[in-house]
């Protein structure tokens, strides 16, 4: 195990030693070499690559984002300011095609993204994709200039990639009748998932004793302030991550008046806050809100870890994780309450019946689409196009194999439902040269 210590010359010098006292120079050499090579390849790419031909994301239709009818804008405003939902069975219900989905981390959002990609592709909608990568320069705040093909007065139907939310920048690039949606998760379980996934990318975890991420997390939760530094690189992944993604200061005290102001703003801005812990119910509320069909929200679980099928937090550690993420816990509890009010308005009995119907349809498609009927280790995925993106230095995200002899009716649907985020973005015309370059570097060094 390498432990980082500050040098005698001052805080700017640091050495990494193992218990025998030898310098862990190879760790830093690898990191520095990776940074230098990445910079070199980016520079080389900028000089040698000809201008890209226009794709579907590079030539957005130019129309005012606020040219929608007053009726539509007023209807969405009323939906937001009251708890009422659009009911698809009403004669005047029309499918909504303009949507802002704030993709939060480790909340099942990759599965939701696949639903949105399929819907947008089916209806030839305009996606606001990031330029060159699969997120909007996260963890920096979203800027509209980061959108591929952005120009003043350009308007898009759907924006749904990872970002740190900034409402004043998002609002102008969507029509006035756009629906705003996000998803949250139990903060303790999210922290567990985030620590497991991002620990190697957060240097502050390198000094925590322990033989693996699970042991390191347990030790961290016993005394977080002994290891946590809010200014540390990627430290935001380990403290109130949902509050951070929503665009607020994740280091606020839970009793700070700014927290209640943030909740008020979120209530006003988002028509629906989904809950990963009640995923099927959330999708049905989304369907109701958007006036979509049941077939539009069918899904297979994507970007899941091998160990994602059950928490390993003891009751004591669970409580510690909630206490450490007090802001996220406050936000989650607030929107969990509003979530169940929406379920009551939907109709509790109707919700139970529709959940069963959604699960039945999902199961039928699983039998039709997935070889073996479930996820497999990445090493067993036969088709490279279906390989999910893996965390640095690990191979823990599972994926799927397509069944042979899928019916013509479902063949393309099955493939789309099993396609990981990055590959689907490429299929939709997104320019992901930075992401692809990083993937090539990782493959070369076997990271």
Automatic annotation (TrEMBL):
Topological type in the membrane:
Single-pass type II membrane protein
Highest taxon listed in the record's lineage: Eukaryota
Cited Gene3D superfamilies? P-loop containing nucleotide triphosphate hydrolases
Q: Name one GO cellular component term.
A: Golgi membrane
Per UniProt, the keywords (alphabetical) are: Glycoprotein, Golgi apparatus, Membrane, Signal-anchor, Transferase, Transmembrane, Transmembrane helix
Q: Does the keyword Cell membrane apply?
A: no
Q: Which InterPro entries match?
A: Gal-3-0_sulfotransfrase, P-loop_NTPase
Query: Chief subcellular site?
Result: Golgi
UniProt subcellular location = Golgi apparatus membrane
Name the record gives this protein:
Galactose-3-O-sulfotransferase 1
Where are the bilayer-spanning segments?
27-47
Which GO terms fall under molecular function for this chain's record? galactosylceramide sulfotransferase activity
Question: What is the scientific name of the source organism?
Answer: Leptobrachium leishanense (Leishan spiny toad)
Query: Which biological process, per GO, is one annotated for this protein?
Result: galactosylceramide biosynthetic process
Family note: Belongs to the galactose-3-O-sulfotransferase family.
């Amino acid at each position: 195990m390498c432990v980082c210590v500050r040098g005698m010359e001052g805080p700017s010098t640091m050495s990494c030693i193992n218990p025998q006292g030898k310098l862990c120079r190879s760790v830093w050499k690898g990191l520095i070499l990776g940074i230098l090579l990445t910079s070199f390849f980016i520079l080389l790419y900028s000089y040698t690559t000809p201008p890209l031909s226009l794709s579907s994301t590079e030539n957005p239709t130019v129309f005012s984002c606020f040219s929608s009818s007053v009726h539509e804008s007023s209807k969405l405003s009323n939906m937001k300011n009251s708890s009422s939902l659009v009911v698809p069975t009403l004669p005047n219900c029309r499918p909504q095609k303009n949507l802002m989905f704030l993709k939060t981390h480790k909340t099942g959002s990759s599965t939701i993204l696949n639903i949105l990609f399929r819907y947008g592709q089916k209806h030839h909608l305009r996606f606001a994709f990031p330029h060159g990568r699969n997120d909007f320069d996260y963890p920096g705040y979203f800027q509209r200039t980061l959108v591929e093909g952005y120009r003043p007065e350009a308007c898009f139907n759907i924006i749904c990639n990872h970002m740190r939310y900034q409402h004043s920048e998002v609002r102008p690039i969507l029509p006035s009748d756009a629906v705003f949606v996000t998803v949250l998760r139990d903060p303790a379980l999210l922290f567990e998932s985030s620590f497991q996934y991002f620990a190697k990318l957060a240097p502050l975890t390198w000094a925590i004793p322990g033989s693996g991420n699970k042991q390191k997390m347990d030790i961290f939760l016993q005394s977080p302030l002994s290891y946590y530094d809010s200014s540390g690189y990627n430290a935001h992944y380990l403290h109130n991550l949902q509050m951070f993604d929503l665009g607020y200061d994740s280091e606020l005290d839970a009793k700070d008046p700014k927290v209640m102001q943030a909740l008020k703003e979120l209530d006003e801005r988002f028509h629906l806050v989904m809950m990963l812990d009640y995923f099927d119910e959330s999708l049905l509320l989304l369907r109701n809100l958007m006036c979509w069909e049941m077939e539009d929200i069918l899904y297979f679980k994507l970007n899941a870890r091998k160990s994602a099928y059950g928490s390993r937090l003891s009751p004591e550690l669970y409580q510690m994780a909630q206490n450490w993420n007090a802001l996220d816990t406050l936000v989650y509890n607030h929107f969990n309450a509003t979530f169940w009010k929406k379920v009551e308005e939907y109709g509790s009995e109707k919700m139970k019946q529709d959940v069963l119907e959604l699960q039945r349809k999902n199961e039928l498609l699983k039998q039709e689409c997935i070889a073996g009927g479930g996820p497999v280790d990445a090493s067993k995925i036969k088709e490279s196009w279906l390989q999910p993106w893996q965390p640095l230095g690990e191979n823990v995200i599972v994926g799927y194999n397509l069944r042979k002899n899928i019916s013509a009716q479902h063949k393309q649907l099955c493939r789309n439902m099993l396609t990981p985020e990055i590959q689907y973005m490429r299929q939709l015309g997104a320019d992901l040269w930075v992401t692809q370059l990083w993937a090539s570097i990782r493959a070369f060094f076997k990271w």
